[in-house]
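The following block was generated as part of the benchmark described in Methods. Ligand: S-adenosyl-L-homocysteine.
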Amino acid sequence: MRESLISLNYEELTRLILDLNEKSYRAEQIFSALHKGLTLKEMSNIPDTLKTKLSENYDDKCLEIITEQVSKDGTRKFLYRLNDGNVVEGSLMTYKFGYTLCVSTQVGCRMNCKFCASCLDGLVRNLSAGEIMSQVIEVNKRLCGDIKNRKVTNIVLMGSGEPLDNYDNVLKFIKIANDKHGLNYSDRNISLSTSGLVQNIYKLADENRHINLCLSLHAPTDEIRRELMPVSRGATIDELLKACNYYISKTNRRILIEYILIKNVNSSKECARVLAQKVGTMNVIINLINYNEVEGKPYKSCDKKTIDSFAEVLKSYNKQVTTRRSLGKDIDGACGQLRRKYIST
Ligand code: SAH
């Protein structure tokens, strides 16, 4: 597959333009136009000779939105077709402060979490930085946003895929999204959710960025976690929480611990007590999410009473707890898992 211009950061695009014996201000014009969602053809201020030279080696589009579903509660779900025909999905949640877009980082996933729909076909491939960025660009454009007037206010890397398993492209995406010549997102508007690749949590902490880290913990003991999430065979919960503490100390950001409640697996009051003790005095919010049942998987969701008593036990240990509101219920049927997701604020 050809490389996309959107996968280039500002410095790389500038170097490319200079190598083509063009003036550097062209890079600024092209970078901001690409991030508005324009194709080369649509850039009326760029000479045709330059457009031709660029299109010899690069694509100016990474994907197109092929379907959009709108839920009664306003949540929208998009299906994107990539240039090689693969398809990924994303969802857009509406909040008082604006829109949060949930983006995918891989086609499929190889973490093989037993409860998750994304893993059904394993990993197909990583998304490039441009393919992740383009999800934001295209949705922002669809909402009539511009680079000076962003409509997508927050980005969550919580779609299909494990972001820390596609580390370099994800980090490049974050830097491109940060660029002031483009959409100019601050790290604080970006959240990354991981199933817990310990070494890469340390690596991310050492980048000196301030993105919000979310950890999919989902179990209070190694025994339960190993059963649900094969990734945990590489590290114990204690090792994982140690890495998170390091992240907190380096970034000064609070971590969100995601905990799916699955009936008769991890939802007892005893599980809540053990979880509270494990987390100890760490600076975290525990986000409880009722499991969304997936066809073909044996796991069941919990009733409200179970969720409430789990939350009560955590609160009795002075833990900060939020319960994730489930949005887009009426459009659930049509896609994998992320349409069911929602980060409560
Ligand atoms: N790989 C990353 C991000 C992708 S999934 C991670 O594991 O964090 C985003 C969140 O949705 C994760 O917490 C994941 O465990 C959770 N999830 C997956 N399938 C789910 C389901 N059927 N019901 C509820 N949450 C689910």
